UniProtKB/TrEMBL annotation, chains A, B, C, D:
Listed name of the protein: Amidophosphoribosyltransferase
Enzyme class: transferase
Upper lineage: Bacteria, Pseudomonadati, Pseudomonadota, Alphaproteobacteria, Sphingomonadales
Domain Glutamine amidotransferase type-2 positions: 19-238
Keywords: 4Fe-4S, Glutamine amidotransferase, Glycosyltransferase, Iron, Iron-sulfur, Magnesium, Metal-binding, Purine biosynthesis, Transferase
NCBIfam families assigned to the protein according to its UniProt record, in alphabetical order: purF
Family to which this protein belongs: In the C-terminal section; belongs to the purine/pyrimidine phosphoribosyltransferase family.
PROSITE patterns tied to this protein: GATASE_TYPE_2
Pathway per the UniProt entry: Purine metabolism; IMP biosynthesis via de novo pathway; N(1)-(5-phospho-D-ribosyl)glycinamide from 5-phospho-alpha-D-ribose 1-diphosphate: step 1/2
């Protein structure tokens, strides 16, 4: 069994949300609903997909590498997944290699019966917990951090499954939005800080949980509410819903990067339209960092909403100066006679007739390594652009994420190793500017960042991590990874 | 060998260009250049792909169903295609079923040596010619109309291959842009009316031919010029170029729908930027068919340039009221509990937070069957839009195309069976309007349509077919297919 | 991932050995040696195959459904399995479904390091042990009985791995020949009764373990000795061998059916040539059950050695009256116009020119359900045989095996539901006879069966099971499965 | 599409019949009957298989690489092949590479309608004919010699299909047994010398044609008669049979190697049981070439019938001194530490316990390159055999076959480059002997070879080719390939 490598159109020059989760209870053909919902969350993970269903008696799982449509679009593929309760998972790369054993939902036969779990997030003390569990005789089947939760539940001494589940979660640190299934029903919960998203909806009497509201739209569910940080929602097989809050009420810290890039623009996150947030980042950016130019050009597609905002605020016309191919996929063999930047051009081609001789404001959502930004600016110049000003719809991304987002090491982050002027030289722009951290908070509807008690997790911009990072601290090379003091980072 | 069905994101509610062709002579790893060029033409045909290369001694072909990237992105797949000359083809469905034997380039060992041909277009008397050839003992290997050309060449009595080729083309009617290879070099030619596009470029000393300029951009070639209608360009293995015009000089009739939809917006067709044309259609549309509204919303992605034009002309803000998924693919099983229009929502979801309570101008490039338009308007209303006005960036598409475009029968074309008022009711819009035929000609840079001698082929709008349609006339059911008189159609 | 069903040429009308194991330590390319050895054991299991290797640092596994050659014949498939120690497993169906997770060697990361195990046999109290382990928090990843052993090792409190392994085995009952690997070396052991075979050999300094001597021949190893019942042989990475006998010295009970059918005729089992045993069964059968006839015809291939013996003893010529196809595989669609018994004829065709008008003695190794015997006799009569006498080279198979052999329920065994006369009528033979239980013991070189203390496990013939059958006793339907009193069975 | 290489158990050290053909008309599910019949002919060709059926209106084909069971054992694979007439083909390698286009039946749409042909044999002037046809404008789609026949039919000027077919066959030279289908029915014919076999049978009213009688047995057909050399049997769709003999009545020369090795032992060829022939070769061999020994051991499986004959004639016991694996297939990676001859041992293992210390007479059907014979003799000696005498059930194979059998060049045939003594040294036998050419003719039931007018084609033994070899003569290297004078060859 040779498994294909995942493929992205961005050459690793984007941060990647690592997972999306979806669950439904009380629907006919729950697995088909689940497949549709996961497809709507495909942007959160393209490497692998799994669905587990429960038919009243038994759990059945099906997993595969690749996209939802490649694995779950046929009747045959869904025929074995019977029942009115199902949960599924899409993943990018997670902790753990690209092995089918790591594809979620993970499933175990506990003494209390079947237990399936789909997880979005990252347990930041998983290595330490795993070591301890193995010492006590636990046998791990995957390299996934999620399996730690299952073993903690299995070995907990509390009498009920719910108690054992709470007992387990008390031991884990980090970010998690979980959808679990037992033979009694479904449990959805979110870590105490609510770092990763999770929402609830209804299709008639059926209950739906999903990482984003867009999945509710696509399956025809009405949005009910988000799961609160630290909340545990239990739904039994009759559809009765009970809410538990076993972790008290710490101040939430949802991930602000969901607004910047991860979530679909048609989703509502933390009670605010993501599209609205992105357009307003563009507006803030135009206010903070104006420039004289002929055209506002988005780097498609993620730069489009901010570019619309920038254009509306600045009055400079919004135009498609870069055309994106719909057929991005695997990398091609680069012929030795090929033009420079062919790998970028397969995805993004300059609209030469439009940009020739013009002064361009390019808008992108973020800069990670900077290599793609450099190539796109070169491409614009090759196509005859007179000036290229780069505006970024987020602050400099200078710190790694340990909460379920795939980030390069700090030393590979452009903003982790140079200041804005140096970055501007590196990407060869005529000017470069980022929205300020307070501009970003204004764009998501707040007055400013509350530095004493930030309303969001913005550690990738500030280095201000809201939880301990046990496994990280345990690593030899930890010092090179450890964040700078917050004060320095924000300054 | 079970071959997958092709899959489109449009439920058959778009016209489809049936082919793209690409050739290169004089490049190292010509097949790799070819793969990259075909990838840039993927929008012209997604069902199958083939590349034939010549290594100075022998021709080698490789064909596959699916996308270029699925078949030609690995070194292994290209390793067998050695040599400095190669030509390739992407196709949607052509005349002929979805059998690997129909995948081009077609190849034959003639008495004069190997002969490979890649064809974009459609031979409208292929059936009649084939019947005659079989009577004389020819054995056809495919059901492709292109094979007729090869048999005509094989059985021609003229002494040179070029003469035999001209002799063959004199017998065919219809549209063709051809890239041929022999052991002597490459021949590119375009039918006397130049219905389908074909351009030439250079990478250093290497010569490149392609359906669109975007393929030149992506492989790093400089655009040289388009192949003229009726021109035959011969390049020998040393790169010497000779041009022939064996068909005299009839007035050209390039396909105007290349501007409307087929070509990539970053291509230049008939010496005009396609993006510019589309934006100007939006401008014309705003002038001809204004409406009071809050937002201009494109149906992504094909409606975007016209929507930008409409917005700039009307002053109504351009906004992404519909979000397109990047992960469109196979159809999913529709769960019985699912919302209405889930099949549309997988691809296009309403940006509910934006459109709620608003008056919307929706801009799309064309209406074919109208079923998708109806679903999108329903989706906008479900998301709370107060009014939905539909503006179409082409005239009503009332006639089938017989020149290499997949069109439904006339009775399935919405504009083939009802007038604009009835169409408006059918799609449940608050208002519906199309750009006029003269508005379209203005948008592509002309003063108006010259009805005596139209500058483009616009038969899909007017029924004014520039060539005889021999095979069509020969069919039993021809009368139901035959075009209306031109006068009536334009009125 | 759709997994093919296993396919056998016998329509389920043979008993199937469920597994073969092979291990090698100290060889270059240990995995390649292992693949070759497993190929020689392919007759012991055709459904799935796995190899695990250790490169001094890490364990790597590769598993697949189907034959060894389908999974391990390419360099690519073996390239990842580096190192000088490897163990592998072929299996028919085992306890546990046809899921890759059940394919052995099973592997676990224990607190002491990696632990891999390949198992031939069946743990007859696995269900009871598993239930207890799950209650204590163990999470099982397969449905294999073998995984019980790993969890018992993981949770044992003894200080060394060897002690924990012995501790684990003390809790299991049934049949097991095990090859285990740790980062310290290899452990091979056989259950106290030695029900399933296991031998040791040497290739130079490399140590080899295998289910049968034929695997030693094929890899070029010299036979050293069999592993004794209850013996545990430990080999460290330097090749030092230590033998342990932690289970005392119970009288051995190796499986006599290895002589009858399971082992390859070119293997030596329990210090006796299997071919010799089979030929002598034929000799005993000719003495006990003579018949006047023209030809001795084996049912190929398993009946051949006994037929040679019968022919030599009786003087009736040995002839190939049935020709076996080499291309047996999947079942074909039976055309409605086809002849009767086409499914048998695909594998076995009558040699009509030879058998026409003749009196035939057919020799087969055993009768399980009897359906194939019936069809073969019909086929011989259709081909013109005048008389068909059936002689069976084993006693009636009246009881199920719980030691790693796939047997139908007793009610499906022909000898489980009727006496010899009724069986003769059922298969429509002119006469039917089986070798006696004492004849069988004589054929394997003993004077007779020692009823007080039988020298072999012959439970399938006698119902005399040498171990408790805990799981079986725990089943509802146990009474229908339970053996008859031995006295009655032997009589 | 990556096609697997064929795999054989003999390391190329056998001659291979290149094809088997099967056709049926008048049966329900004709394609399923055809699949079953082809499966019975699998030994005649393992590389590829195809079936074409006719449903009264249209022809449908399905082709695949590999075995019949891999391609035609499922209902799905046969569902598309509807109708009551079908013909199929198995092939080893033919003239033409391993491309699906070369897999037969070949099919063409002629002016008279569909025409399908399955061919066993080889056209020895195909290259010359093809060159001429291409010159006249024919386009070939395969590299198969069989396609020449179709083009000759397509371009013949005779009025009826049957006349055109005869006209075509008059131009070809060599060996052919053909099964053709048109929309009018089936035509089976055999070249004037009847080199390759072809028989006719009946299942009720359905007519069956096949290469061998074993295929009739397996599909439940009664043997009617063989098709005579030079006969053309026409069956219309109502089942009416007409026989034509357009080629006069030359003396037949069927291939004697069908008796030696190609045909299944349970087939009847040229009115004689193949098993009987082989056993009698053994008898002749024992008479001509006796030896004192303890055991007669066949090289399985092809040597078994002759070994039985040798044993019966000599009185030396027949024993299985070599055990053949049922799981032969792809070649394995040879581990560097492996024993010598592991590649042979995977297929054939010495029965050490039996042969140790014994004097062995090994019986094989033929010697081609001799490499396998050498390895088997080494293996017997490694296993302790005291003496190894090699007896071959055919005369020395010194000449290539140009009639549809895959033979090495003469210089690679052991008997093509050395005499019997040298061969004996090469294979390291204690003695080596072949049956004489007259002994072989006696074994097939004749008094002796009629040297003036041989009753069989025995060119591989004698170099006496019964037809001109036009293509061979046209080759540069012809002199090294050309046969020796017959006199010398037979002497």
């Amino acid at each position: 069994m040779i498994l294909p490598k995942p493929h992205f159109g961005d050459d690793g020059d984007k941060l990647h949300e690592e997972c999306g989760v979806f669950g439904v209870l009380g629907a006919n053909e729950a697995a088909a609903v689940c497949a549709l919902g996961l497809h709507a969350l495909q942007h959160r993970g393209q490497e692998a997909v799994g669905i587990t269903s429960f038919n009243g008696t038994a759990f059945t799982s099906r997993r595969g590498l690749g996209h939802v449509a490649e694995n779950f679009s046929t009747g045959e593929s869904l025929a074995e997944l019977r029942g009115s309760m199902a949960a599924g998972h899409v993943r990018y790369s997670t902790t753990g290699g690209s092995d089918l054993r790591n594809v979620q939902p993970l499933y175990a036969d506990l003494a209390s019966g079947g237990f399936a779990v789909a997880h979005n997030g990252n347990i930041s003390n998983a290595t330490a917990l795993r070591k301890e569990l193995v010492k006590r005789g636990a046998i791990f089947h995957s390299s996934s951090d999620t399996e730690v939760i299952i073993h903690l539940v299995a070995t907990s001494r509390y009498p009920t499954l719910l108690d054992r589940f709470v007992d387990a979660l008390r031991m884990v640190e980090g970010a998690y939005s979980l959808i679990c299934m037992t033979s009694q029903g479904m449990i959805a919960c979110r870590d105490p800080l609510g770092i990763r998203p999770l929402v609830m909806g209804k299709i008639g009497d059926a209950v739906v949980f999903a990482s984003e509201t867009v999945a509710l739209d696509v399956v025809g569910a009405d949005f009910a509410r988000q799961i609160d940080p630290g909340e545990m929602v239990e739904v039994d097989l009759d559809g009765n819903i009970r809410s538990h809050r076993p972790f008290g009420a710490p101040a939430p810290r949802p991930c602000i990067f969901e607004h910047v890039y991860f979530s679909r623009p048609d989703s509502v996150f933390n009670d605010r339209s993501v599209y609205e947030s992105r357009k307003h980042i563009g507006i803030e950016l135009a206010k903070e960092r104006p420039v004289e130019a002929d055209l506002v050009v988005p780097v498609p597609d993620s730069g489009v909403p901010a570019a619309i905002g920038y254009s509306q605020q600045s009055g400079i016309p919004f135009e498609l100066g870069i055309i994106r191919s719909h057929y991005v996929g695997r990398t091609f063999i680069q012929p030795s006679d090929g033009a420079r930047n062919a790998s970028v051009k397969r995805k993004h081609n300059a609209n030469r007739a439009l940009v020739e001789g013009k002064r361009i404001v390019l808008i992108d959502d973020s800069i990670v390594r900077g290599t793609t930004s450099l190539k796109i600016i070169e491409m614009m110049r090759d196509a005859g652009a007179r000036e290229v000003h780069f505006r970024v719809a987020s602050p400099p991304t200078g710190y790694g994420c340990y909460y379920g987002v795939d980030t390069p090491e700090r030393s590979k982050l452009l903003a982790g190793r140079m200041d804005v002027d140096a970055m501007c030289s590196f990407i060869k722009a005529d000017s470069l500017a980022f929205v300020s951290i307070d501009g970003l908070y204004r764009a998501v509807g707040l007055a400013a960042r509350d530095n004493a008690c930030p309303q969001y997790c913005d550690a990738c911009f500030t280095g201000d991590y809201p939880t301990p990072l046990t496994d990280l601290a345990g690593r030899r090379d930890a010092e090179t990874q450890l964040p700078l003091p917050v004060a320095e980072a924000i300054a």
